Amino acid sequence: MDKKIVIKSFYKTIQNFKQILPIIISILILLSALKILVPTTLYEKIFTSNPVIDSFIGAILGSISAGTPITSYVIGGELLKQGVSIIAITAFLLGWVTVGIIQLPIEASALGKRFAITRNVTSFVSAVIIGILTYFTLTIFT
């Protein structure tokens, strides 16, 4: 390999890491605050242990929250530690990454209202279905 390409790639990686680091730190701070302020009993009240309802609720919360894929791993791990089911987390993370209620007006103006709504509805339904399929997959293999 060319030494210049490796060095250029290294510096580009460092620049990308510098951009992502503040986001990761802010997510960790937010999660720490939520861990202190939100009692774990609230998760038990929100999520019912019903795979369909948990998948739907997870997808709704993820769709409203919206975020980047890299931060979703941290959030998913923390929710798992708090006792939230993997079904709800799966739907939440899919909604978090693929559905953008907050960004909908910008997406509609850039790509068209019909496309933006269709994409978001399809992504939401997919998040719910994949959450439910996660439940069935886990019951088959565990």
Give short descriptive properties of this protein:
142 residues; mainly alpha; 7 helices; 85% helix
Could you please describe the fold and organization of this structure?
It is globular and about 55 Å long. The chain has helices at residues 3-37, 40-46, 51-65, 69-81, 86-98, 104-111, 113-141. The mean pLDDT is 85. It folds into 2 domains: 1-37; 39-141, no CATH class. The protein has 142 residues and is mostly helical. Helix 6 packs across helix 7.
Number of continuous helical runs: 7
- Structural Rg: 18 Å
What fraction strand? under 5%
Termini separation: 46 Å
Count of separate structural domains: 2
Contiguous uncertain segments of 5+ residues: none
Order of helices and strands: HHHHHHH
> What's the main sheet like?
none
User: Helical proportion?
Assistant: over 70%
Morphology? globular
Structural class: mainly alpha
β-strand number: 0
Give the averaged pLDDT, no decimals: 85
Can I get a quick summary?
This protein has seven helices and no strands.
Explain the layout of strands and helices:
Elements: H1 3-37, H2 40-46, H3 51-65, H4 69-81, H5 86-98, H6 104-111, H7 113-141
Helix pairs in contact: 1-4, 3-5, 3-7, 4-5, 5-7, 6-7
